[in-house]
Amino acid sequence: MAGVSHASAQQQGESAPNRGERLFESHCSACHQYDDQGMGEAPPLEDSPWVVGPSERLVRILLHGITGRIELGGRVYDREMPGFGRILSDTDVAALATYTRSRFGADEPPVTPAEVKRTRDQHAGRTAYWPADELLELR
Ligand code: HEC
Q: Which residue among 25, 79, 91, 134 is buried most deeply as judged by most CB within 10 Å?
């Protein structure tokens, strides 16, 4: 599946920002309430320390998922989110992370496919979701 969308993206010469936005709309917005439907039960992404902090936090979330207590926007969440590491390529995760970070307030350089690959390789075989508080220890 990822391979198919990958190929068509290349055929259309899609730019990385457009790809990031398209992936965000199809994989994130429903749960995180950016589809104008109000269906999501997931925490907000604006200025979240998991989004605007060190990029490795977001890359790990996208690859492996996240669980545990999260306090954001005056609310407490204690739920779980599955990762996308099995269906998205390093290029897709990089485009998605770069788009998400710039849309929601990170003033940082783009996330590269090489960075995603490094994190993926370091945690090859991981199936557990990341505990939210453990990600905050990443600097
Ligand atoms: C199935 C619903 C669902 C989908 C799809 C989903 N998330 Fe989540 N996400 C959640 C939930 C629920 C949490 C809270 C987990 C917890 O309480 O520990 C969360 C937490 C997060 C967090 C950390 C907390 C915060 O709000 O900053 C980030 C960052 C995040 N998601 C980004 C994304 C991105 C980017 C995508 C698209 C690739 C995505 N999520 C797709 C449900 C989802």
A: 91
Q: Reduced to 3 states, what is the DSSP secondary structure of residue 23? A: helix
Strands 75-82 and 65-72: antiparallel
Q: How confident is the model at residue 36 (pLDDT cuts 50, 70, 90)?
A: low
Global pTM? 0.91
* Stated length of the chain: 139
Tens of pLDDT, residues 75-87: 999 999 999 999 9
Q: Is 136 in the pocket of ligand 1 (CB under 6 A)?
A: no
Q: Which of 66, 72, 79 to mutate to test the pocket of ligand 1 (most atoms within 8 A of CB)?
A: 66
